[in-house]
Design brief:
globular, 6-stranded antiparallel β-barrel, two-stranded antiparallel sheet, 1 helix, alpha+beta, 106 residues
Length: 106
């Protein structure tokens, strides 16, 4: 019972927090997009990387999603950018209704 309530709450929060639209096939769906930059040091060398990812509702994920090219538009006036679906994972061990998708440049 709690997992059903949590999934419903996550769906409502996701709609409010979505900062981008992902076009998957012919469908545009709200997503939370993040391309966080992380800095690291390896020995004396400094390195940095981004790990672009999005959170999407499970109901919006098609079955043949892996390797797909999708378009993501962040903000209302922004240009869409193409990304390839590198990996997808459910968000946590309990069914929360959200899928975490790691993206890469096509």
């Amino acid at each position: 019972m709690f997992d059903v309530l949590e999934a419903r709450m996550n769906c409502t929060a996701h709609k409010k927090l979505a900062n981008a639209m992902a076009t998957i096939g012919a469908n545009a769906v709200p997503v939370i997009f993040d391309a966080e930059y992380s800095a690291a040091t390896v020995g004396a060398a400094r390195m940095g990387a981004t790990s672009p990812q999005m959170q999407i509702m499970n109901a919006d994920v098609p079955d043949d999603f892996a390797g797909s090219i999708i378009q993501i538009t962040v903000g209302s006036q922004a240009q869409a950018v193409a990304w390839r679906v590198a990996e997808r994972q459910p968000d946590g061990e309990q069914p929360t209704g959200i899928t975490l998708v790691y993206l890469e440049q096509p």
